[in-house]
Amino acid sequence: MSLDSLFEPDNVAIIGASREGGKVGHSILRNFMEEDFGGEIYPVNPEADSILGLRSYESVLDIPGEVDLGVVTVPPTAANSVIEEAVEKGVNNLIVITSGYGEIGGEGVEREEELEDILEGSDTRLVGPNCLGVYDSFSGVDTLFLPSYKLKRPPEGDIAIVTQSGAFGSAVMDLLADMEVGISRFVSYGNQADVTETELLEWLDQDDETEAIAVYMEGVSDGEKFLEKARKVTEDKPIVALKGGKYGSGREAVSSHTGSLAGSYEVYRGVFSQARILEADNIEQLFDYSRALAYNKPLDGRNIAVVTNGGGFGVLTADALEEQGLKLAEYSTSTEEQLREAVPDYGNVENPLDLVGDADSKRYERSLEVLEKDPNIDGIIVIPLLQPLPLESDVIDAIVNFNEGYTEPLVVCMTGGEYTGVHAKNLEKNEVAAYSSPKRAVDAMEALYRYGDWRS
Amino acid sequence: MSLDSLFEPDNVAIIGASREGGKVGHSILRNFMEEDFGGEIYPVNPEADSILGLRSYESVLDIPGEVDLGVVTVPPTAANSVIEEAVEKGVNNLIVITSGYGEIGGEGVEREEELEDILEGSDTRLVGPNCLGVYDSFSGVDTLFLPSYKLKRPPEGDIAIVTQSGAFGSAVMDLLADMEVGISRFVSYGNQADVTETELLEWLDQDDETEAIAVYMEGVSDGEKFLEKARKVTEDKPIVALKGGKYGSGREAVSSHTGSLAGSYEVYRGVFSQARILEADNIEQLFDYSRALAYNKPLDGRNIAVVTNGGGFGVLTADALEEQGLKLAEYSTSTEEQLREAVPDYGNVENPLDLVGDADSKRYERSLEVLEKDPNIDGIIVIPLLQPLPLESDVIDAIVNFNEGYTEPLVVCMTGGEYTGVHAKNLEKNEVAAYSSPKRAVDAMEALYRYGDWRS
Fold first, then answer.
1. pLDDT at A279
2. Nearest-CA neighbor of B387 among A169, A286, A258, A257?
3. Are residues B278 and B345 in the same domain?
4. Which pTM was predicted?
5. Does residue A246 share a domain with residue A233?
6. Domain boundary residue, one of B242, B260, B295
7. What is the mean pLDDT of residues B271-296?
8. Average pLDDT of chain B?
9. What is the CATH number of the domain that holds A101?
10. In a shared domain, residues A57 and A160
11. Secondary structure (H, E, C), B26-69
């Protein structure tokens, strides 16, 4: 049976729905009621007749008709028996939030084996246990049991997130929401007793809403299968992966965390490279890469134009390009001549193009129009520093408008505080990736180049 | 003559003060009037009798008594003649904001040579030209001519900033203000026609308000002198440096930016290492290092304890420690026994210490108290993820209180959005460095170890 009902179910049963505020089974029920989830919602709780005004069922078996998605939030000692009922009912997909399985060792391992026995031969496909489950910005599925003031939900967008660690997932969702980065689907898959990260990647491959996939993984279910399938995914869509548990000490921490074996990092690196998965070194890079890849086509070449009103930032960007094996594009003679007209005498029409501290948005606009026509340029890094007085908010409109017609990759670097942050969010909403430093912008460009190079 | 009047003048002359809002000479005059600058303020403008209610002077020569600090904001064609008058007047220190000197080549180079001739043999010491000048959070000196909504001013604090690039300076000041990172003194020194970066470092060495110095430099005035003096500074205080113009392409950009020769990066690396200057790879790292060094003594050893309520973050921290040559501390038997009492059965009393998703601030408090007593631990990374419901704001108080009595280095990692950001700022106000990812927290710890290792 497919995984469609994980993301786009017609109805959902909250197994373990609770009247008590603060309980997981209460929060998730509320999420479905408050998000724009369009389908039926069935609370399941043997001790309540109704919860939050909805009729409650004693067992999932009592729900009339088919159940697309079941979300299990009962304590570990009760979880397997309600899962058994859901399997009997023929529920398409289950998300098991409950922890206390393989990750705690001892009795948990037995519980997980029992769970696997229950699923054996059934059509029900299960995500978890020991996970946060699914957030889908389009359908309104939201099993994240944390309140929105602690964990803001990102807007609709192009990036899918697949994470083994729930804590990782909740922290980055909150981070991305604050940055206004749009997310298509989010899955925290925990112990992967049934549905594997590989199957989730395959589903996302055929998902029209997803342009790039960000993965946090500690262990992999089946290395060979992962390699084979992931390689197919990356023919269409980029995957960026952050690996947790690379070395001895980190691997030990993994085994007590999600109960999986982390395996040798060397093997992982080989798999990532063969599958054309871009490996991220850290959390920032995971989403720095993903954003660039989701909003741009890959880079066709190494020649980058840099435009800024802050000379020092041009210098730092030139350094970072060199360190990343990219190049400052050499402008054609006609480009230089035209830039001479767009930039005052005391500016610098070399690359990096220094529009100088008194630049306004018009100067950016004119320069970008000149650069657009130069075939020697494979992509542009724009660095509009908003601290100088003459550069106003309309430079954001100028960049967004230009980018809509521009066919090559373009990323932005903006360093500053709250005022700059507001403008960075505006870029992000318009699918222009904004980075807080030259190094991060250049790293993102390098990912666009590497992915393009792999695919061609 | 000393540089004291740059930072703590008894009075200031704004040479080129203007009535016209938006003009540099207007903004700077306003800054001094609005900040809590305690001394006399003398506007100098031959075309006005009074500006903003203050008596205006035709020339600096007309000001009665001694002038401590002169700030020059007139156009380049008029700058050298007013500087000549200031030298004649015997002004202690001058800050020349005016650009159009060596950095533009041609006539600018001649102008800068003329400026050097004017200063020859005089006691007046000059910062600039082509700079933003000085911001001093204690004295109220503020020559940053950009409005505070575009460039917020950081609060009083321990970190000094010395930057060759004004754009770099203004962007990072705005960034740090937003993070609530405290700054003691800020100097953007531009073309260093007179006062060099080396002299500024020497002044900051004897400055009681400064605990760590962050430097952005493109070229150096005198390499040998810099090495000799900086090495002395780092015996007392850490210096973190970001070098702009490392390679061919970046170096070319430098020469059209601050007009200085960038020199070979290999030579710089050698000088940094001999002078025990910590080199930062990028803007983030410059202040990640500086904050850790300003708030902590150096690390005595490599053994780090990690405490978190998010397992995945413990895993990522363990990986980053290994990559940076640091180690997960091995707890003593008694530590493990005591942690067993502080942490529930399903938690993990290994290192990283996983307090699990239902941890509250008490669990953090009790664990930190146990770790404090273990002599095998050289420093602690605390990772309180605020997304889970049971962990409330009081974990910040718990960490700050603990840190006040703790004698070894401690840094925090918190990943998340706006809610997390508010709490990170609270830590920063209390001089606890907070980082947005495990990698950045570990990199900061590595800087504390490297600096400690150099000094011992």
1. 98
2. A169
3. no
4. 0.95
5. yes
6. B295
7. 97
8. 94
9. 3.40.50.720
10. no
11. HHHHHHHHHCCCCCEEEEECCCCCEECCEECECCHHHCCCCCCE
Taking Cα atoms as reference points, which of B216, B177, B210 lies closest to residue B197?
B216
Indicate the residue among A130, A161, A195 that finishes a domain: A130
* Number of domains forming the structure of chain A: 3
Per-residue pLDDT at B257:
57
- For residue A401, being part of any structural domain is answered with yes
Domain check: are B303 and B446 in the same one?
yes
Which chain A residue has the Cα nearest residue B150?
Answer: A387
Q: Is the pLDDT of residue B259 over 70?
A: no
Check which CATH number belongs to the domain holding B265 and give it.
Answer: 3.40.50.261
Is B100 in Cβ contact with A171 (below 8 Å)? no
Residues B30 and B67 in one domain: yes
Instruction: Please report whether residue B138 resides in a domain.
Output: no
CA distance B294 to A267: 40
| Burial call A431-442: b when 16+ CB within 10 Å, e when fewer | bbbbbbbbbbbb
CB contact under 8 A, A387 and B417: no
Residues 55-114 of B with CB under 8 A from A: 100, 104
pLDDT for residue B256: 58
Cβ-based neighbours of B263, under 8 Å, separated by 6 or more: B219, B220, B223
Residue B174 shares a structural domain with residue B43: no
Burial label, A117 (beta-carbon count in 10 A; 0-12, 13-18, 19+)? exposed
Q: How confident is the model at residue A382 (pLDDT cuts 50, 70, 90)?
A: very high
Of A104, A315, A415, Cβ closest to residue B254: A315
> Minimal CA–CA distance to A142: which of A24, A283, A22?
A24
Q: How many Å apart are CA A355 and CA A367, to the nearest integer?
A: 9
Is A62 inside any structural domain? yes
Contacts of A350 in chain B (CB under 8 A): 252-253, 256
Of B21, B121, B122, B114, the residue nearest B70 (C-alpha): B122
Residues with Cβ within 8 Å of A374's Cβ and at least 6 positions away in sequence, in order, are A305, A329, A331, A332, A334, A335
Are B166 and A246 in contact (CB < 8 Å)?
no
Q: How large is the average pLDDT for residues A374-379?
A: 97
A38 touches chain B (CB under 8 A): no
What whole-number distance in Å separates Cα of residue B451 and Cα of residue B280? Answer: 13
How far from B39 is each of A79, B115, B141, B186, B303, CA to CA, in Å?
73, 28, 10, 19, 50
List all residues 6 or more positions away from A8 whose beta carbon is below 8 Å from its beta carbon.
A136, A138, A139, A141
Residue A45 in domain: yes
Say if residue A404 is in the same domain as residue A444: yes
Give me the residues of B, 200-219, that contact A with CB < 8 A: 216, 218
pLDDT tens per residue, range B71-111? 999 999 999 999 999 999 999 999 999 999 998 889 999 99
Predicted local distance difference test score (pLDDT) of residue A256: 58
B428/B448 same-domain check = yes
- Nearest chain A residue (CA) to B177: A417
Tokens 């399997």: give the residue.
A87
- Give the lowest-confidence range in B56-70, B135-149, B334-348: B334-348
Share of chain A above pLDDT 70, in %: 97
Q: Give the Å distances, CA to CA, from A423 to A200, A419, A443, B400.
A: 34, 7, 21, 33
Nearest CA in chain B to A152: B417
Q: How far is CA B186 from CA B94, B129, B138, B204, in A?
A: 15, 16, 11, 10
Nearest residue of chain A to residue B99 (CA atoms):
A346
Q: What digits encode the pLDDT tens for the residues A216-263?
A: 999 888 899 999 999 999 999 999 999 999 987 767 666 655 555 556
pLDDT at A389: 87
Q: Touching check for A177 and chain B: CB below 8 Å?
A: yes
Q: Calculate how close chain A gets to B166, using CA atoms only, in Å.
A: 8
Average pLDDT over residues B397-402: 98
In the structure encoding, which two tokens stand for residue B228, read together?
A: 């000799």
β-bridge pairing B40-44 and B11-15: parallel
Segments forming the whole domain that contains residue B77: 1-129
